């Protein structure tokens, strides 16, 4: 039998997930157990918490109000258990913190926070590993991780903080030279910039709505670095698909043109995670919470 706090945690994780199955993976539970907990809470409150479909869940207005209160309640409870452990003194707020993050997020978005954090806590030493491949926290002795996309069930504490959209883009020069695609079937023969998956060494397909994936057939430039990919697209080498985190400024300035907007895929989630087992030093918890707050408030539009 789950306690009240455990029931609320299931609800909060479900609210941060796209399906009950995704929530179950994060919670080490079966999808059926997650569904039963949500139904139990709905019976308790006499209100629907989620709209369900065969493909996804969407939180209701009442669910959003409950989510705010539930998240706050769980944070307070965590603080209660940490009381007396996290003394804000010289000895406690010192030591090393190792972070893994995609290089773009680390360089362009996370670094300002880390700079301010270091100025406030100069005895905390930050070790940041910028990599687009997935890092195993325990094996690599990493305290905090940031990841885009799904996280497999590895016993992590996981918080969704933002999302990444993917845009098909080209420079005005490329569009002038090769034309504007109007349909997905026109993309295979266009000159393309291909992003390489660091985990597999293979090229990422271009992703579109309804699960459609297209592997460009005319690749003339490949890279595993998102910034180099952006530069190649800006220079008119071809068409490419990059994230809004990279593309927004260039689109606003007219340096890149956003294409086939009606066919864009569902956004990917951005997560902050840390190991679940063992005590969490105050310095790690402090930075972990700071990163969550900071990335959650980022507005990219």
How many β strands by DSSP?
A: 14
Report the helical percentage. 25-40%
Helix vs. strand class: alpha/beta
Return the CATH architecture of the largest domain: 3-Layer(aba) Sandwich
CATH homologous superfamily placement of the largest domain: Periplasmic binding protein-like II
With strands numbered from the N-terminus, the spatial order across the biggest sheet is 4-3-5-14-6
Largest sheet: 5 strands, mixed
**Between the first and last Cα atoms, what is the distance in angstroms?**
44 Å
CATH topology of the largest domain: D-Maltodextrin-Binding Protein, domain 2
Strand and helix order: HHHEEHEHEEEEHEEEEHEHEEH
Mean pLDDT over the full residue set: 88
InterPro entries: LysR-type_TF_proteobact-type, LysR_HTH_N, LysR_subst-bd, WH-like_DNA-bd_sf, WH_DNA-bd_sf
Pfam families: HTH_1, LysR_substrate
GO molecular function, one term: sequence-specific DNA binding
Protein name: Transcriptional regulator, LysR family
Question: What descriptive keywords fit this protein?
Answer:
single chain; 301 residues; alpha/beta; Arc Repressor Mutant, subunit A; D-Maltodextrin-Binding Protein, domain 2; 3 domains; five-stranded mixed sheet
């Amino acid at each position: 039998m789950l306690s009240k706090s455990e029931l609320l945690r299931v609800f909060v994780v479900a609210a941060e997930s796209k399906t009950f199955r995704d929530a179950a993976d994060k919670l080490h539970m079966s999808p059926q157990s997650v569904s039963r907990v949500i139904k139990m809470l709905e019976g308790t409150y006499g209100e629907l918490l989620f709209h369900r479909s065969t493909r996804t869940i969407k939180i209701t207005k009442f669910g959003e109000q409950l989510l705010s209160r539930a998240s706050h309640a769980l944070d307070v409870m965590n603080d209660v258990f940490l009381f007396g452990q996290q003394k804000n003194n010289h000895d406690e707020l010192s030591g090393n913190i190792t972070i893994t993050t995609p290089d773009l997020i680390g360089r362009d978005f996370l670094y300002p926070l880390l700079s301010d954090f270091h100025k406030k806590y100069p005895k905390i030493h930050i070790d940041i590993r910028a990599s687009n491949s997935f890092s195993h926290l325990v094996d690599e002795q990493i305290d905090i991780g940031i990841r885009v996309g799904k996280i497999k069930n590895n016993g992590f504490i996981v918080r969704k903080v933002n999302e990444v959209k993917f845009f098909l883009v080209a420079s005005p020069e490329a569009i002038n030279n090769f034309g504007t695609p109007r349909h997905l079937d026109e993309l295979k023969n266009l000159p393309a910039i291909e992003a390489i998956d660091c985990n597999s060494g293979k090229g990422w397909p271009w992703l579109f709505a309804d699960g459609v994936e297209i592997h460009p057939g005319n690749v003339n430039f490949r890279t595993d670095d998102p910034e180099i990919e952006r530069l190649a697209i800006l220079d008119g080498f071809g068409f490419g698909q990059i994230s809004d985190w990279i593309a927004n400024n260039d689109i606003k300035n007219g340096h890149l043109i956003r294409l086939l907007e009606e066919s864009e895929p569902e956004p990917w989630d951005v997560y902050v995670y840390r190991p679940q087992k063992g005590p969490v030093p105050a310095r790690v918890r402090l930075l972990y919470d700071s990163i969550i707050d900071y990335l959650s408030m980022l507005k990219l539009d």
